[in-house]
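[Meeting: bench + compute handoff]

Bench side (C.D.) handed over the final construct sequence. Compute side (W.E.) agreed to return the predicted structure before the next meeting so the bench team could plan truncations. Sequence as handed over:
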Amino acid sequence: MTHKQLLYAVTVAEEGNLTNAAKKLFIAQPSLTAAIHELEDEFNIQIFIRSNKGIKLTSEGEEFLGYARQVLEQTKLIEERYGGKQTGKLRFCVSAQHYSFAVEAFAILLGESGAEKYEFHMRETQTYNIIDDVAHLRSEIGILYLNKFNEEVIRKTLRDNNLSFTPLFTAKPHVFLGKNSPLAAKSKITLEDLKPYPRLSYEQGSHNSFYFSEEILSTVDCDKEIVVLDRATLFNMLIGLNGYTICSGIISEELNGPSIIARPLDVNDYMEVGYILPMSIHPSHLTAEYIKILGELTRG
């Protein structure tokens, strides 16, 4: 295995086409094909499925390329740190539940990086996708929560994917509301108070189990349910429909505006919000810095 072979495989995956990848790499297509075959033979795996319609990544190829990208990124960091060589775009990816502090930390990290060229990904996505992204190294870090209801299932899923969970903070459940909601004047809200209003939650796709729900107390019966895919839609409906969602209570007015407020929910429960990482890979310097910023934003 060589650095060049890993670069070839990653480029083919990115281009989705051997011809385009060969042009980008300035090599002949037969040479590129031979290099990929040598890599597959060395590790006795099939990275790509080839057909008349083109090429497609296999599941083991997707996992292999996750590690390959990590090797290429670490090599780039060594070259930049010790060789004074700028090798291209700075890359970083986070997968997270819909937390404004995660987005704020992401923006701070990008600002502090000082990179002239970069490709940063902030994926606010479904809970299972967060785990899958980090497990297959599509993201360096994931952010989600545990509580007494989902902990056993989530921790087993993390163990099965060789991932660790590290707490950032523990929060009491809060309710997000529009500032003009009939409930906004209350200093504390009960489940009974919420009954007349629509409950908003995030779609969890094919893993739409209560255990993977982003909202705490998702098993509590509710007559009016609205399921959305993104934070902007959820916030618009909190305001326009006097809806609510149950969350950690940490909100950034700078990012979310002044129209959304948080009120404590009077229940005996908690949310332990933290980050997940691969157990087998040492965090990059960007990941370590991101964790530091997360801690600073959520401390106290």
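W.E. noted at the follow-up: The chain has a mean pLDDT of 88. C.D. will use this when planning the next construct.
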